[in-house]
Amino acid sequence: MRIIYLSIYLMILSGTACADPNENLSPRDAVPEKLQRLLKAYPETLASASRNRLRWKDGTEMIFDDSIGNKDFETMLNSPDLEDQMSMTYPAGHSFKPPPQKNADPGRVRYEPFFMKMYGNSAATVSGKLASVRWLPQTVNSLLKITTVNRVNEKLQAISDELDALPALKKYLAPSAGTFHWRTVRGENRLSAHSFGIAIDINVKYGNYWQWDTDLSYKNRIPLEIVEIFEKHGFIWGGKWYHYDTVHFEYRPELLIK
Ligand SMILES: [Zn+2]
Predict the structure, then answer these.
(1) Which of 223, 234, 200 minimizes the C-alpha distance to 90?
(2) Which of 61, 81, 210, 235 has the smallest number of Cβ neighbours within 10 A?
(3) Is residue 21 part of a domain?
(4) How many angstroms does the Cα of residue 172 sit away from the middle of ligand 1?
(5) Strands 130-135 and 142-147: what pairing?
(6) Which residues are placed with Cβ below 5 angstroms of ligand 1, an ion?
(7) Total count of domains within the chain
(8) Helix 152-164 vs helix 224-232: crossing angle, to nearest 10
């Protein structure tokens, strides 16, 4: 009799499961939208993603969410995971309404192992992957070093060519205050985006930087026309950060991709 009851019980259980096999599994195993965007942004280097893992084309795997919740702002900057890197929405184009909200710094959070894996984990490794871009060839014609990984050099060259056709903007763009430089962020242990050969600073004469100001009151003199051309090619702008750095642009397509 006990066996019959058990059989009926198992039949009910299996019947329930057959009704909707994904009822409980599907949401749990779904790839988070922000991880999907990260994967889509780097098709040349990233291969696939599952619920909490990012897989590189060489087979390397990285955890997306370290499950450490409620990180304060400083902890997020200093000990982020990939999820933190994707946590703030970058206001592309004219959706940016200055001044930025307190600590709204989309792109300042960088999971360092991701960038080291992508672009190189030492000055020498990153240097070996750099190429020259001719900055504003018709009007300035200087050479800048930028990474070839993800074809960032081609993207910066396209930006340069577009900007070159707008001579009124030249004073903001040249001389460039630098591209590749293996260094930490001023006053911190974190590596700057310049370390990876993915960043460019334009003319500091028209720049504003939060560390130069005592009151951290937002200021900007860079025309948004410049910003839109950079964004079109996958570069974000430090002028959209609460901790503003208005001459700074860096290649971060994961924050711009739809
Ligand atoms: Zn910079």
Answers:
(1) 234
(2) 61
(3) no
(4) 14
(5) antiparallel
(6) 199, 201, 248
(7) 1
(8) 140
Distance 37 CA to ligand 1 centre (A): 24
Residues 6+ apart with CB under 8 A from 191: 110, 112, 115, 182, 183, 184, 185
Question: How far is ligand 1, taken at its centre, from the CA of residue 190, in Å?
Answer: 14
Q: Classify residue 173: in a domain, yes or no.
A: yes
Both tokens of residue 120? 């190189």
Backbone angles phi, psi at 88, to 5 degrees: -100, 140
Tokens at 239, concatenated: 């002028």
Where helices occur in the chain by DSSP H, the ranges are: 2-19, 25-29, 33-41, 73-78, 82-85, 112-119, 123-127, 152-164, 170-173, 224-232
Question: pLDDT tens for residues 3-26?
Answer: 445 444 444 444 444 443 333 447
For the chain, what is the total number of helices (H) and then of strands (E)?
10, 8
Average pLDDT on 63-81 reads: 94
Supply φ then ψ for residue 91, to 5 degrees: -80, 90
Side-chain half-sphere of 99: how many Cα atoms within 13 Å?
13
Q: Which residues contact 37 (CB under 8 A, 6 or more apart)?
A: 86, 254, 257
Smallest CA-to-CA distance from 200 within 167, 229, 166 is with 229
Domain-embedded: residue 18:
no
Amino acid making up residue 231: E
**Residue 170 is part of which domain span?**
29-255
Q: What is the pLDDT of residues 127-137, one digit of tens each?
A: 999 999 999 99
